[in-house]
Amino acid sequence: MSVGLDFQESRLSTTEPFESGNYKKALQEANKILKKTPNCTSAKALKALTLHRSGKITEANLLADELIKSYPTDESTLNVIMCYFRKTGQGEKIDEFLKRSLERSPNREDLLVCLFLHHVQERNFSAQQATARLLLQNSRQVRSTTGL
């Protein structure tokens, strides 16, 4: 079995108990993954969300704050982090996190799309316009460098 499939199976074993409401089992599975790969950001994000759902809010907030300081940019971690901050009513942290991630990698169209959609959910029209302009500039740069 390849490492990629092993990781997908372990991530699946974490999300299944979480989705069914078995937070104790989901926490055990997340800890198991973190023992094998301590820097796995998606497992840390799932653990923070699980801790929050199981009522350990202080511990969850500490883990989430530690996680966003590392500025992970993989899609699965982004989705869980944004879900966590939406559920905890900390929408301003999503905005801050995405903007800082874009400073580190400004040409990431997926991060710009996430930021745009966040502004749509927050009903921040001027920020939507600014992000849409950045997306347009980014797509023009890509077209000019690739010759499309």
TrEMBL record:
Source superkingdom: Eukaryota
Organism the protein comes from: Schistosoma mattheei
Protein name per its UniProtKB record: TPR_REGION domain-containing protein
Classification via PANTHER family: N-ALPHA-ACETYLTRANSFERASE 25, NATB AUXILIARY SUBUNIT (PTHR22767:SF3), N-TERMINAL ACETYLTRANSFERASE-RELATED (PTHR22767)
Gene Ontology cellular component annotations, sorted alphabetically: NatB complex
